[in-house]
Amino acid sequence: MSPESAERNFHDLDTDGDGFLTRYDYMALAQRRLTQTGVPAETPEGEAVVDAYLNAWDVHARALDTDRDGRISLSEYIGSFETLVLTGTLDKVLEPICRATFDAADRDGDGRITAAEFRSVWSRAGTDLTAAFGRADADGDGLISYEEYARARHGLLIDPC
């Protein structure tokens, strides 16, 4: 876990670019995922995505907002992110997000996502999606299982690259 990966994650979460993470940013991320996958917010899948992101906000706010001003600064995030990783809190927050976004992307409900479905939920700027899909597809079957997807999402957060 490097400060660079924590900083990169912070900027990925800061949807409005104001230098702080707020509940708004997490809601905007949920909405972005719903728009990308074409899943309406009022469906069970859509509600799961929104709930997962808002749960992430609640956990992050409790753990990272050290001055309790209702927002998380870059320095608060970087200073506490390693603790989230080491205590397993990151995994507890990430699992519902992974499950909800995977299920939203898995439009045919077969428990695997195709390269096209993968593109609807993998949105880090500057990412070669073909290469990212290939790395995530650990067994090389041309499809990504939930386990492969969850491993790839976790790696994206803690990988210094």
From TrEMBL:
Protein's name according to its UniProt entry: Calcium-binding protein CML
InterPro entries: EF-hand-dom_pair, EF_Hand_1_Ca_BS, EF_hand_dom, EF_hand_pair_protein_CML-like
GO MF term (any one): calcium ion binding
Superkingdom, taxonomy of origin: Bacteria
Lineage of origin: Bacteria, Bacillati, Actinomycetota, Actinomycetes, Streptosporangiales
Pfam families in the record: EF-hand_7
Keywords of the record: Metal-binding, Repeat
Record keyword Cytoplasm present: no
Start and end residues of each EF-hand domain: 1-36, 62-87, 93-128, 129-159
